[in-house]
Design a protein that fits this description.
By secondary structure, the protein is mostly beta strands. It is about 0% helix and about 50% strand. It has strands at about 5, 10-15, 20-25, 35-40, 45-50, 55-60, 65-70, 75-80, 90-100, 110-115, 115-120. The strands form two sheets. Strands 2, 4, 5, 6, 9, 10 and 11 form a seven-stranded mixed sheet that branches. Strands 1-3-8-7 form a four-stranded antiparallel sheet, with no helix packed on it. It is globular, with a radius of gyration of 13 Å.
């Protein structure tokens, strides 16, 4: 049974928008941090954004100002609003959650991962 489930991926044109969502399923998770990562073909997984349960957010430099992360602490859910999408944003996007606060960009501290949702931005 999946702990996290992503949805909302799809195909959009250059400059378009998508909203990704991530929700816990099955067992109840104790979550301090929820984040988004992405992996493009031939590249390593990279940090996109994260939110702490106090509302603090942080973004990768190349998405800051275009993407917005928001969460619901009671439901352990998180959304990623992606605006002004560019072809280089094309990747599989993964939701991740941690029972501990993670301030940095590392993926190693996250305890739970979704299976990913494909985002493709046409050029």
């Amino acid at each position: 049974q999946e702990q996290l489930v992503e949805s909302g991926g799809g195909l959009v044109q250059d400059g378009g928008s998508l909203r990704l969502s991530c929700a816990a399923s099955g067992r109840t998770l104790i979550v301090s941090t929820m984040g988004w990562f992405r992996q493009a073909p031939g590249k390593e997984r990279e940090f996109v954004a994260r939110i702490l349960n106090n509302g603090n957010t942080y973004y990768a430099d190349d998405v800051r100002g275009r993407f917005a992360i928001a969460g619901d602490n009671a439901k352990n859910t998180v959304n990623l609003q992606m605006n002004s999408l560019k072809p280089e944003d094309t990747a599989v996007y993964y939701c991740a959650a941690s029972s501990s606060p993670i301030l940095g960009v590392t993926a190693r501290g996250y305890n739970y991962w979704g299976q990913g949702t494909q985002v493709t931005v046409s050029s």
